[in-house]
Structure formats: structure tokens, C-alpha cells
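I wish you would study the pair of lines that follows with an eye to the fold:

===
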Amino acid sequence: MDYHFVSLDKFQEMMKVGELLEWAQVYGNLYGVPTQEVEQALKAGQDVIVKVDVQGAATIKGIMPQALLIFLAPPSMEELVSRLRQRQSESGVDLDRRIETAHEEMKRLPIFNYVVVNDEVERAVAKVDAIITAEKCRINPGVVEL
């Protein structure tokens, strides 16, 4: 699936009529996952990967308990702060808010099935791929026992 950009009015209508599996306002922008696309892909036997924040992950897990949640974590909070500063996509209050949000998100790790440290992109991708492969080999897919 790809990103789809819609007008604010269209997005609000999609929210109102339940066309979004989950949605959230993040840093002043609205993001959502269209239910129909996810359902179609799953019915076709395809894997579906969505990139959401912890709030979105919790919402999806509530609707689809069999969903596999993988948290992509920074190597350390210091490294995350360094990466955010290097990006220069926000500064001042916005940067502080993003850092505080990251601290809060780390506290939500228990709702996830796995955590992958994103220390090197290729290695993180390989770990996610290995998790997906292992889950497909489960005797009882979608059942994660701790």
C-alpha cells in the first residue's frame, strides 16, 4: 500500500463513516489507515504492514487482536535526540514535544509483541523480516505466548 493524501473534508468524512481502521492527529497532522485496503489485502493472503504510533498500534490491537505489533526503537534515547536534531525538521518547542512523546511511547512497549532496535536500517529490516517469517511458521498463528 502507498500513502494516499486526501483533503481535510474527505478525511473527516472517512472518520465519520468508519472507513479508517485507526486514525490520529500527530504533531498537527491527521493520519489514518483505510480499513478497506487492509481487509482486501488480508483476504488476498497478503501481509499488511502499517506504520503507526503507539496510540494507533493499541487501537489496531483492540480491533484485530491477532495483529502482530513490532516496536521500532532507537538504540538509545540519546541517539534518538541526536537523530531528531540532525534532521532539523523541527526545533524548539516542537523538538521538545517530540522527545517527550518518544519517552512516553517507550513506556508502552508491553502492548507490542516484539521490539526491534533500529541501530542500522539493513539490520532492522532483516530482523522484521525474520519475525514475519517466524510468525508464518507458528503452529497457532497470531497467538503470542509470553
Q: What stands out?
A: The radius of gyration is 17 Å. The first strand starts at residue 20 and ends at 26.
